[in-house]
Amino acid sequence: MIDFLRGPVVYRDTEYVVLDVNGVGYRIFCANPFGVAPSKDGRDGGEVTMFIHYHVREDAHLLFGFTTREEQSLFRLLLDVSGIGPKVAIGVLAGGRPETIAGAIRQENLGFLTKLPGIGKKTAQRMVLDLKDKLGAITGGLDEGLFAPSEPLSAVPEGMGAWGEAKAALMALGYTEAEADRAGSAIKGKLKGGETADAVTKLALQALFQESMMR
Length: 215
Hints:
By secondary structure, the chain is of the alpha+beta class. The protein has 8 helices and 6 strands. It has helices at 69-79, 86-94, 98-106, 110-113, 121-131, 163-172, 177-187, 197-213; strands at residues 4-7, 9-12, 16-21, 24-29, 48-57, 60-66. A hairpin with a 3-residue loop joins β2 and β3 (16-21). α6 (163-172) packs across α7 and α7 (177-187) packs across α8 (197-213).
């Protein structure tokens, strides 16, 4: 059983990172690949630590990674909900911090939960029923205004209906409104309209990562 892996990130994709651990490259699927980065103070020497869930199926052995124990714990709890597999669970974690998602479940906020990727009303109801009393140490509450409709970013092309949800997802992940707006401006040339909120969020996370590397 692999509990965690530590090493530098040598490659990033929209769905995974590759971690170099003593010369072996591990492909690790994660919620926000462009948000996986060493600590800003440099104490880890450029390495990152990812807590691992090892998933085995008939045609593949997959590694899912998390930057905190809370993410790892919530992922495993989500797998216990009927209708939620690893890919949907990772999508849920991409929609907000663990404490925010846990707060929504405790408050039975179906409006928030159904905005998470891959979660419909019935699955959201099962999440509340199955997990409300199992969240343990994952503390926190939900900002009720977090997913309120937002004004479209003036710099974003008309028709980008997914931006409101993508911006809210960025803020749920801890980015400020100003940082989210900068990301929106940075990706506007790549958008054609009709993209999903998940796709827009990933593009914005990539832009924020690239911005952080230029500082």
